[in-house]
Design a protein that fits this description.
Blueprint lengths: L4 E2 L5 E5 L2 H4 L7 H7 L12 H15 L3 E5 L2 H4 L8 H16 L3 E7 L5 H5 L9 H14 L5 E6 L1 H10 L10 H23 L4 E8 L2 E3 L4 H24 L1 E4 L2 E4 L7 E6 L3 E5 L8 E5 L15 H14 L3 E6 L6 H20 L4 E7 L18 E3 L6 E3 L1 H12 L1 E2 L1 H7 L6
Parallel strand pairs: 2-3, 2-14, 3-4, 4-5, 5-6, 6-10, 7-11, 10-13, 13-14
Antiparallel strand pairs: 1-17, 8-9, 11-12, 15-16
The structure holds 5-hydroxymethyl-3,4-dihydroxypiperidine.
Length: about 425
Amino acid sequence: MTIDLVFPPGFVFGTATSAHQVEGDNRFNDWWEWEEKGKVPRSGRACGHWQLYRSDIELMARLGYRGYRFSVEWSRIFPREEVFDEDALLRYAEIVDLLRGKGIEPIVTLHHFTNPTWFNRRGSWLREDNTRYFLKFVEKVADTLKGVKYWVVFNEPNVYVLQGFILGVWPPGYRGVGKGEKALRSLVKAHAEAYSVLSKRGVWVGVAQNLIPFKPASTRRRDVEKTRLVDLAYNWAFIDAVLHGEYAFLKGRGRAVSSDFDFIGVNYYSAYLVKHSWNPFKLFIEVKPLETDIRTTMGYYVYPRGIYEVTRAAYERAGKPIVITENGVAVEDDEDRIKAIIRHLQYLHKAVHEGVRVEGYYYWSLMDNYEWDKGFSQRFGLIEVDYETLERRPRKSAYVYGEVAKTNTVKGELVERYGLKTLD
Ligand code: IFM
């Protein structure tokens, strides 16, 4: 008989979304602009969450979820540089109150990949003094959303810098390692400024960092060295810069404005193999997904042990409590989602059992939504969204996860049926 996996009292099982991916009609940000230019699929009304938030919150409460991570859309609050939309901000305040009323712990993200278009016209994150615009937004939000304990200033600054400033495949569309490093330093500075505003209010401030267990494709020295470089630049540059004012990036070391975190949010999805490449345009690096028994429709694979690896690594490196701010899968068969959840929780439980301080786990995502350059093709949701009618239909995984959330326990029968037989 398999025994129950019990998580500590106070551990929160919740779900996560972001504004542009679920709200709909975010017309004043740079993603919308890219959509209009035909560079990425249109988000349109997305899941209509900006109108349906009340029933969505009721649904998450009925399902038993205890936490909800969402983002406040900067371009809704400041659609123009000098235009402040108080009503929009008050709607976010209402969302926080509704969540609190249902006993759901909110985590508020302040930047989740989107900028107001006017901010980009001012030079975006390539100009360090532009952090003042973001700070003005942070102050407004912090003054209004009372009673929020957990704040994430930046979602996945590493993914954002890579896609938006090095590869140029996401807005604002800059290319080059130098640009990426400039943006990185501005984000670190903006984090410091936001930290000083928020921490005075006695709340917890963190980052939601996308962490990847990179593994050398072979034991060859070149592959091992490249793996170390990628690990430092991708996983740790932002975190090291914030904590120590120093970081290692793709072309050497750099310095930035240090501040602090009260927790590290970990967004974990998959593992990758790293190989030395002779192609200078790829910075002499080749990265490809580590293959396992479950392939997601995103093209990468489910590797549950990775959540243990990155959670431990983040805890050891930063010495801060951990929140799993995202973990989830886009799959065609919901049974694979249940397997993925149970298996990741087996490994997370192992980390907790070994003494890693983890405060919660937020499944990505509450519902199917707009997956950036992949549009609506990816089904990450515990809840299926019918994009024609906007009807929400909880999947079997939604109820299974609800039982975990209500009891803080993964029952032995679930482990037996969906879990891994042994953990290494
Ligand atoms: O949808 C994204 C989210 O916006 C950031 N983290 C990864 C998710 C899945 O790709």
